[in-house]
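Loading example: each entry is read as two labelled lines plus one structure line.
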Amino acid sequence: MTVVSENRCFDGRQLRFRHAAETLGCDMHCSIYLPPQAQAGPVPVLYWLSGLTCTDENFVHKAGAQRYAAEHGVAIVSPDTSPRGDNVPDDPEGAWDFGLGAGFYVNATEAPWSSHYRMYDYLATELPALIAAEFPVQAERCSIFGHSMGGHGAMVMALRNPGRYASVSAFAPIVAPARCPWGEKALSHYLGPDRDTWKQYDSCELISAGATQLPLLVDQGEADNFLAQQLQTSLLEQACSDSGFRADIRYQPGYDHSYFFIASFIGTHIAFHAQAIARSQA
Amino acid sequence: MTVVSENRCFDGRQLRFRHAAETLGCDMHCSIYLPPQAQAGPVPVLYWLSGLTCTDENFVHKAGAQRYAAEHGVAIVSPDTSPRGDNVPDDPEGAWDFGLGAGFYVNATEAPWSSHYRMYDYLATELPALIAAEFPVQAERCSIFGHSMGGHGAMVMALRNPGRYASVSAFAPIVAPARCPWGEKALSHYLGPDRDTWKQYDSCELISAGATQLPLLVDQGEADNFLAQQLQTSLLEQACSDSGFRADIRYQPGYDHSYFFIASFIGTHIAFHAQAIARSQA
């Protein structure tokens, strides 16, 4: 692991590092914010998963999360959104919604994607082990959240790994990738035509299949241009309602899909996770 | 004036607009954040001047200022850092510290710069008039702040226009452009070789020449790579001390020149200006 940049921020440390990711077969960049409390001892850790086209850096620069992480004494890890590098295949036409920057947090099974696009395993196993080994975090005290494709990824990680995360939250998540154009394009390429294999990566399907309850918070902007066709938050409401899964799903009038929306509510989400982590320990 | 984007942020409006800037002989972009209080009536306005290479957008995306602007009920205007467009001359070698993105907030007098590079007049006259005409602001209740080259610009604007701004503040400002490489390059090209003409754009010279007191706050990171050669905060301390000009100049251990530094203290600066504006009215 090589630290490529470090900046002091809200009396903590904003770090960016590079490492050889065995799961993905490529070098990866990842960012982590360590709050000032980490100087005195290990702190809980939140994982942030970003949306389509993002790297590990968008969140770091635009969300304004460091202030709240410093306030609550939590680290925030923000990984990249796909494998990277000259050897990693991309969409043949360079589309922004598939391939590089659009890994959808799955383990691809179809060629040529299956050799590198294994973001699910990377996030479930390799990255947390690296973070635990290299940084002063309480690896077992963690939560996960994300935006759009990353909101999808965060919910899938949490719903498929009961007991691992104290809580999960999402901004404008893709709640049912098997039923929207972005998701259908990605899953059909990464996983092939058998839609049964898609269900393990579809939050609505996981909840309908009886996923274990954990605290779930969703914020969705009402002026989000992707709401009707891609995000379809109502499908999550329906799945939760049908399954008796308790979720706090909030519609925010006037807000769109941008980081201005994320910045406006990131403090609420970080407080939500900090409280869930504290409660889960008690 | 044409609004090119609008995003809801902390219950206010983050706007970007384009207008034909007569002073500069080109079209300009400018951003403004209107806090939620502006829905009920006009609000005070802060002007933020950015540093080398920035446009009007860096501050909008990276400073995390909207939260504090919403808290204190102030608008923040962030203009671009130079004239722009195909007709505007740039450094022949495309240097990042001169020409486009590096107007230094002066009125150039030398060809070919003098036809467009008139950022001082743009900020002193044209832009405030436009803001007052188009947005719900109390134009007379204003303060100004900035970063690096923009910290220089903010201090020069405030020191040369007594009574106009309730307060001024700066992050890592160029305090003596006549005595540092960035400033010497820019001023010699924009203003010519007669160094007497440079003094009107040099904060230390203006203070030494008896500028009128106003509240002045400066934050300077101790780990800033540009401190020793370019920023030379000690020259400002000396000028203030020699002239009896009261300033709050703070060194922040470990902080560098980046927006991570700005984000960490932007809340303090916005509170400082809000209080100064409130006090100046009382």
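Chain B has a mean pLDDT of 97.
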